[in-house]
């Protein structure tokens, strides 16, 4: 479920499989942001706020990255396409890393930023982007995270989603006894 949401909100260009580690590692910071609270790590806000911030972040990041790719049409260093600027992989990784930092602090944020920096490095090392493409992608990702984080309260007010402070959401893995299938249980406490 979480990976489906991330894939839907990630830039279409970033979903192309090039066979490099960046194709997968770019989603690690976003998975950390969505998963740490479910694993019991204390977050600044509740899970509904994390979901809203993540959705808004990755939607805005995807719109900006894909619009710039269509407008700029910069050739990639390896000459394979005219969609080098900015790096969508890097934008996705840095957006997730900044969300982790904003929600969980620099302790977890540092790990997320290491993963994001590895993605940016790999994009340049594998000659799929110029260094300025990854720099722009990182800035877009960080700015998108701040936009997503600051839009939580207005979105909740707009849709009437203000919940009492004692409300919580939990996601638990469960093994279905008859088939042995691994399932999940979503629990709301209010």
Question: Would you kindly provide a written description of the structure presented here, covering whatever features stand out?
Answer:
The protein contains eight helices and two strands. 39% of the residues are buried. It has a two-stranded antiparallel ribbon. Helix 6 (106-125) runs antiparallel to helix 7 (131-150). By secondary structure, it is mainly alpha-helical. The protein is globular. Helix content is 58%, strand content 8%. The two termini are 23 Å apart. It has a single domain (2-189), classed as Vanadium-containing Chloroperoxidase, domain 1, CATH 1.20.144. It has helices at residues 2-9, 22-25, 28-35, 47-72, 88-104, 106-125, 131-150, 152-158; strands at residues 168-175, 182-189. The model is unreliable at 1-15 (pLDDT under 50).
Strand count, sense and barrel status of the largest sheet are: 2 strands, antiparallel
Low-confidence stretches: 1-15
Number of domains: 1
- CATH topology name: Vanadium-containing Chloroperoxidase, domain 1
The number of distinct helices, counting runs of at least 4 residues, comes to 8
What distinguishing features does this structure have?
single chain; 190 residues; mainly alpha; Vanadium-containing Chloroperoxidase, domain 1; two-stranded antiparallel sheet; 8 helices; 2 strands; 58% helix; 8% strand; disordered N terminus
